[in-house]
Amino acid sequence: MAASVKTLALRTLCASTRNIQHVSRGRVKHSCCPAWVTVRRGYSDGTEGKNTHFGFETVPEEEKAERVYKVFESVAEKYDVMNDAMSLGIHRLWKDTLLHVMNPQPGLRLLDTAGGTGDISFRFLEYTRSMHERQQRQKARSSQTPSWRDIADNYASNQTDLPQSRAVVCDINKEMLKVGKQRAEKAGISTGLSWVVGDAEELPFDDDQFDIYTIAFGIRNVTHIEQALQEAVRVLKPGGRFLCLEFSKVSNPVLARLYDAYSFQMIPVLGEVIAGDWKSYQYLVESIRKFPDQETFKEMIEDAGLFCVKYFNLTGGVVSIHSGFKL
Amino acid sequence: MAALIRGLRAGKALRGLASVAVQAKLSSQCNRVRRGIHRAAVLRLADDFKSNSVSPPSYHEVHTAGESSSSSTQGDFSNTAAGKEYGQPNTSYQDQSGEHDEDYETEEQLQARILTASLEFVPLHGWSVEAIAAGAETLSLSAASTGMFNNGAGDLVLHFIAECNSQLAATLAEQQNQIQLGQAEPKKTAEFLRDAVDLRLRMLIPYIDTWPQAMSILLLPHNIPDSLKHLSTMVDDIWYYAGDRSTDMNWYTRRAALTGIYNTTELVMVQDSSPDFEETWAFLDNRIKDVVNMANTAKQVQATGEAVVQGLMGAAITLKNLTGMNQRR
Fold first, then answer.
1. A/B interface, count of CB pairs below 8 Å
2. β-pairing, A319-325 with A210-216?
3. Are the CB atoms for A322 and A310 separated by under 8 Å?
């Protein structure tokens, strides 16, 4: 009896490793995949389906993308309101910090993946616009008394002078993009912004297109994180920067207990009261727990081929910004 | 026993609170970086050979063990060794694009290259992140790569200073070589110091218009340790090649004197508008003469003091002789 169970277990493990190699399309790096991932994926009934986590549930991989889509479809309307309620408005500070870490020069192209309602893109355009204005002012100050020749040259070059920064918001969910477009119209931001439907694991862009790739609070919803990282590396220009803002592990045990209590007791309740959706917010807090911690994620980013990978913890580790460069 | 365990847990919690602030700084830097580079090298080779060969990973294991034991940041030696091993299949030395070179140079070397390329934009943009962005673009890297430099303009200035100092040290070493080979005459100390400071300050001439901005960046509190370190190693180098092997108080006084000379001459140079900075060199000559005079005066004072003391002793003994107190009865 024991022997047959053992052979069954061995067979499922062999089948799962075969599946993984098939899925990875001959990429070498899965040989350095940690063992626990193979074990987790192995517990199917020996057929082709692999499972992954959806919050604390285990679901087949194909289902996860669909269920995530449904979650965000239902929360799209109240997404921004819920963000403010759940994080007590601190999410704005997190996103502002992401922009400060990014410190973008004017004229760069941003790809805001899982950008949803466009928070990062709006901030990016605002930041580059004010930086551009500051540079213009400094230039004007340094040339206080321009000669008539300089003035004439200025007239000629004024039209083509502006290096236009452009932001592309890419999201798999049309509802979120719709909400984002409405926000953009209300705020009056129109130049330099595009809205594209796309899957983070298979971006609809050519290689070497973007200077900066950001994914804010989106990567934990992706089924295959390594593929999303590979796609990020693909669409980034040489020298381009990858930035990820995501919930992460709190290191301090006191804070961790408070944070856990708040997450599991308060947030689903808020979800039910404000958005009328308990299950989506239950998924949200569970998916945060399932996401790898700072060091593990940093190693995953390095494995994808990015260099100078660093992370910055915000609010004691509740959120962390990972940054890497394609060199 | 239980109290001990509770105490340990409390200590851990407190340490956790402290480490939260330090988290960001602890990540990145040398070893992980080089592991990333090697992994990239392994990946590219595996793609080239289209096989899951075992040998590169094992070499890679040996190499990371070797690298983690070396504490220096000059990792280019081991990297070029790796490059030589892997050099055979990858014959892309002609290809100067950043992606291929990354197999054979560390991130520090790439950062150094970007900063060197940025120096030519300093007269236009000043010592700032815009200059670094322009420099990165000449290397066909996106301007987003300025994010690699946490200190922004400070990194650029410190890099420039480090370059100037190493250039100075190389020139002084070359001169010493010449003297040892007998092809040149050894200089007197004052003249040597003057020439060394002259040489070092002339390296600032291309950037002299924006140098006040650079000096103010160096005076920012988080840059002061690094700038002091560069200044002190430069002064130490100059005195070493001038032949100073003192082990007493002289070591400190000499370096302090030269630091003062250098800093004041730099300040004079920044606001000097005479042709080819003649006034600066005149000022430098005067300061060196002052220091030499001071040294001579100190020696004279000491000699005079000794002579005076001996004279007084002699007078006292004579007096004792005269009064008859010195006789032994």
1. 122
2. unpaired
3. yes
Rg from Cα positions in chain A: 23
In the structure encoding, which two tokens stand for residue A177, read together? 């993009």
Q: Give the number of other CB atoms < 10 A from CB of residue B66.
A: 11
pLDDT in tens, B262-293: 999 999 999 999 999 999 999 999 999 999 89
Q: Considering Cα of B177, then B181, then B184, then B185, what sign does the dihedral take?
A: positive
Which residues of chain A neighbour B40 with C-beta distances below 8 Å? 305, 307
B46 CA to chain A: closest CA distance, Å? 7
Complex ipTM, two decimals?
A: 0.74
pLDDT above 90: percentage of residues in chain B: 54
- Is there a contact between A149 and A212 (Cβ–Cβ < 8 Å)? no
In chain A, which residues touch B (CB < 8 A)? 28-29, 31, 101-105, 107-108, 135, 211-212, 236-241, 251-254, 294-295, 298, 302-303, 305-313, 316-317, 323, 325, 327
Between chains, do A238 and B142 touch, taking CB under 8 Å as contact? yes
- Residue A44 is encoded by which pair of tokens? 């199917």
- Whole-prediction pTM value? 0.71
Question: Which residue of chain A comes nearest to B152, CA vs CA?
Answer: A103
C-beta neighbour count of A194 within 10 angstroms: 11
Find, among A97, A123, A96, A101, the residue nearest to A112 by Cα: A123
Q: Are B13 and A253 in contact (CB under 8 A)?
A: yes
- From residue A91, give the alpha-carbon distance in Å to each of A81, A285, A289, A310, B191: 11, 15, 18, 21, 64
